[in-house]
Design brief:
Elements lengths: L1 E3 H7 L8 H11 L3 E6 L7 E12 L2 E10 L4 E6 L9 E5 L14 E3 L2 E3 L2 E2 L26 H4 L5 E5 L13 H12 L26 E3 L7 E8 L8 H9 L7 H13 L3 E5 L6 E5 L5 E3 L5 E3 L5 E4 L4 E4 L3 E2 L12 E7 L2 H11 L4 H6 L7 H16 L4 E2 L4 E4 L8 E3 L1 H8 L5 H10 L3 E5 L2 E5 L12 H12 L20 H16 L3 E2 L5 E2 L1 H6 L8 E2 L10 E2 L4 H11 L5 E18 L8 E15 L5 H14 L5 E4 L8 E11 L2 E9 L1 H7 L4 E8 H10 L14 E10 L4 H11 L3 E10 L8 E10 L7 H19 L2 E2 L3
Parallel strand pairs: 11-14, 26-30
Antiparallel strand pairs: 1-10, 2-10, 3-4, 3-6, 4-5, 6-9, 7-8, 12-20, 12-21, 12-22, 13-20, 14-17, 15-16, 17-18, 18-19, 23-25, 24-25, 27-29, 28-29, 30-31, 31-35, 32-33, 33-34, 34-35, 36-38, 36-39, 37-38
Helix pairs in contact: 1-4, 4-11, 5-6, 6-9, 11-12, 13-18, 19-20
Length: 805
């Protein structure tokens, strides 16, 4: 958005001591970001008034001429293709080095072997109109005079970043910016364009009755219209053209220019219709299949959710965005209808998005404008029309269809709260001054302050005391706030035990035993579970599965990990994976707190699973046991393996165990049954363990804090024993018997298992380290006696024989 400094000075007192750059910096600090400050005259640097001395035909081109032009300090020869030039005319000449509005830089060039030193300019090339039919002919001027000086283009333009005011519809105009400047400079507005009583329309002759119908007041809360006769379409006066040019708009004709002028001054878009082409105005939604040819010459397809302005038969404008060619102002127009309305900003925004069309009008409407502004806008337009077209007459009553309600408060403001909120105590007098300068009504009742919101800030902007605090401090100055460290105590966030445990497990398994982490979908299918002898009835059915073969939520991690083995077994001789993920069961779980009812969600829990696969005949089950022992040793948990009472259908019942940590079961480990594996498509030996992550975390939380234990004062004695026993004897039974034999046995550890022909059929060798220790020094004889007693005990109970070969 572009702001004219001269225009702002007409509306608000700006001290001469404040330079344009200083004003731009002040606006940036208090209100909006000013991106650029442009001195208008610089845009016309090296563009001067020239006089045509001679015109000759180009020797090598029939449609070109050689023009000799006097520019004051020298006479130039310029090649020109225009046909409207004559000897003696004054024309704008762009000298070598000039840069035109379209970005063209003028350089000396050869055109058909003739050198051209400059350019004669058309109006559109100078951004002074739309005309490109010929060279712009000047009615007056001194030869060599700068063009900006001649046409009084001495303004300074402030370019404002539109994104910084996306929620402030009141700032998309010069008057809104002038109000802000008056607040932070503590100066006065020179005129009240919003509520001035002089803005009343005098009806010259009430001969036209306008027929206006608004079908949807939610999409159009206010619609005003008035008719004027004796209109003569012509070019706008220079002062009006200069204002439009300064703010980036091209002059068109006096009526259209006035509607644009009011929009740039007050922020209220207007539209003018040729009354002879419009018999009735209906504000309605578009009908199915309707089209409109808009002012830019494009046929646009309308949808049924777009608001339009229509006559009896067809749309004549897209509400709040662009007019149609039906009803367009032309040179033949003598009677007009001025429209000033307020439209729902959401509707406008949706329509601009759908049509990929944004205009100056839609930019303002989609910010949410004050419905009261529509009245001020039409008052201002009529006043300007009668000024520019003195013979114009108001020939109808003002039609005002309105149905809206604004929340103007009041908002109760506690000054102590304000000081605490912004971190600075500002005198009440200053607070009152700032708010009143911005248009708020400040009233003190019984030590309480009540602030009434001005209508132009009530649509989308101000609704709470925090909004008022922002208004006060931004005008007072953010730079006046002192930087202080916060007084609140800064604590680290509470650790999420589940995430911490997950991360530690992943680090142990990845870095410690070099397993690869697997991520699988939480989906499985009926056939997949049936092949593994698992009951699909335990799984949760998906109402809308991503594929027919993935119609269930997984009841365990094992099925997908087995699928990983199957899909990768041809590429790798051994595969070692683990996964942490959720499993789901059809039994009820936690109550759904997001539901209005007390329905329960399916049971859900996180599990950890480890799977090993090898193509050679190695004991993957024993290797898996070692990994599990290593994992829980890193948590300092006492781990125990027992005979499993219940196992999934895919498990080999003879090679399986229940895993207990700190005395409680948390999972199981088992070898994959070869027949089940073969039916599933697995050709390797596979062992898998699956644990409840919830159970692991429960053990962590219940574990006592580690305490330092003094080292034993007396030495320990160690003995090794190797027994040959039946392969049906469980390790747990023997180790427990050893530990319970005597209080002097502090530790027993299995360090070797062996089976072979020398041992005999159905026999195995178990070798143990046994450590003896107490609160005195033990003698070898004493330990030997205990050792002999232990051997007899094991021989009697398990038939164990000392291995001596």
């Amino acid at each position: 958005m572009f702001l004219s400094l001269n225009w702002l000075k007409d509306l608000v007192e700006i001290p001469r001591s404040i330079t344009p750059d200083e004003l731009a910096r002040a606006l940036t600090r208090h209100t909006v970001e000013v991106e650029n400050v442009v001195v208008q005259a610089k845009q016309y640097d090296k563009i001067v008034v020239g006089k045509i001395l001679e015109i000759k035909k180009h020797p090598q081109a029939d449609k070109l001429s050689l023009v000799k032009v006097d520019v004051g300090f020298e006479k130039l020869e310029i090649v020109c293709g225009a046909t409207n030039i004559k000897t003696g005319q004054l024309v704008p000449v762009a000298l070598v080095g000039a840069v035109l509005a379209n970005g063209l830089e003028i350089k000396p060039v050869e055109i058909r072997s003739v050198k051209s030193n400059g350019m004669l300019c058309a109006a559109d090339e100078l951004n002074l109109g739309d005309d490109h039919s010929g060279i712009m002919i000047l009615e007056q001027g001194k030869i060599g005079q700068n063009l900006a000086e001649l046409i009084n283009l001495t303004d300074v333009i402030l370019e404002v970043d539109g994104k910084s005011i996306s929620h402030r519809g009141d700032l998309w105009c010069h008057y809104g910016m002038a109000r802000e400047i008056a607040a932070f400079l503590n100066s006065k507005l020179k005129t009240d364009l919003i509520t001035a009583q002089s803005n009343r329309i005098k009806i010259d002759h009430d001969k036209i009755k306008l027929n206006i119908i608004v079908e949807d007041s939610k999409l159009c809360p206010r619609y005003l219209a008035i008719c004027l006769d004796n209109i003569k379409i012509a070019d706008s006066p220079l002062w009006l053209q200069r204002r439009l040019i300064a703010t980036g708009m091209r002059p068109i004709n006096n009526i259209v220019d006035i509607t644009n002028y009011v929009m740039l001054e007050l922020g209220q878009p207007l539209h003018a219709f040729d009354r002879k082409l419009v018999d009735k105005i209906i504000v309605r939604l578009a009908k199915e299949g309707e089209q409109i040819k808009t002012l830019d010459g494009v046929n646009r397809q309308l949808s049924e959710d777009m608001l339009v302005i229509a006559d009896r038969q067809k749309p004549i404008a897209i509400a709040g965005i662009i007019g149609g060619q039906t009803g367009e102002i032309s040179d033949k127009t003598t009677s007009i209808i001025i429209e000033s309305a307020n439209f729902n900003y959401i509707s406008i925004r949706k329509t601009t998005q759908r049509l990929a069309l944004r205009t100056e009008a839609s930019l303002r409407f989609e910010k949410g404008l004050d419905p009261n502004l529509a009245l001020s806008g039409i008052y201002r337009a009529v006043k300007l029309i009668k000024k520019v077209v003195p013979d114009a007459r108001v020939v109808s009553k003002l039609v005002d269809e309105k149905k809206f309600k604004l929340n103007l408060g009041p908002i109760e403001l506690d000054l102590d709260w304000l000081a605490n909120f912004i971190g600075l105590k500002i005198e009440e007098k200053k607070v009152k001054e700032i708010l009143e300068k911005l248009g708020f009504k400040y009233e003190k009742v019984s030590n309480k302050v009540k602030v009434t919101i001005p209508s132009w800030r009530a649509t989308r902007d101000i609704s709470a005391r925090e909004d008022l605090a922002e208004e006060v401090i931004r005008i007072y100055g953010y730079d006046k706030l002192k930087s202080v460290m916060p007084k609140i105590e800064m604590n680290l966030p509470l650790a999420n035990q589940e995430l911490v445990t997950e991360r530690k497990i992943k680090n142990i398994l990845c870095q410690g035993v070099h397993l690869t982490e697997s991520y699988n979908y939480s989906f499985v299918g009926d056939s997949q579970l049936l092949k593994l002898h698992l009951d699909p009835g335990l799984a949760v059915k998906i109402a809308n599965p991503i594929a027919t073969h993935l119609n269930l939520l997984r009841p365990a991690l094992a099925p997908n990990l087995f699928a990983n083995i199957k899909n990768n077994q041809a590429k790798f001789s051994q595969i070692n994976l683990f996964e942490i993920g959720s499993i789901f069961l059809s039994s009820p779980g936690e109550i759904n707190k997001n539901s209005g009812s007390l329905e329960k969600l399916p049971y859900q829990e996180k599990h950890l699973a480890i799977v090993l696969a090898n193509s050679v005949e190695t004991d993957v089950f024993t290797k898996l046991k070692g990994i599990i022992t290593y994992l829980f040793a890193n948590f300092d948990f006492p781990i125990k393996y027992e005979k499993a009472e219940s196992l999934p259908g895919w498990a080999d019942k003879l090679t399986a165990a229940q895993v207990l940590v700190a005395g409680g079961p948390i999972g199981f480990m088992a070898l994959l049954d070869k027949k089940v594996g073969f039916s599933f498509g697995i050709k390797k030996q596979v062992a898998l363990a699956e644990f409840s992550l919830k159970g692991i975390i429960r053990v962590i939380r219940s574990s006592p804090n580690k305490k330092f234990q003094e080292f034993a004062k007396f030495p320990a004695l160690m003995r090794d024993l190797a027994f040959v026993v039946s392969d049906k004897i469980l390790y747990n039974e023997i180790i427990q018997e050893i530990k319970n034999y005597s209080d002097l046995i502090k530790q027993a550890e299995l360090f070797d298992v062996f089976q072979g022909e020398k041992l005999g059929e159905n026999k195995k060798n178990l070798a143990f380290h046994i450590i003896y220790q107490t609160d005195r020094t033990l003698t070898s004889e004493e330990v030997d006696r205990l050792q002999q007693g232990l051997i007899k005990k094991l021989e009697k109970k398990f038939g164990a024989k000392i291995r001596n070969f």
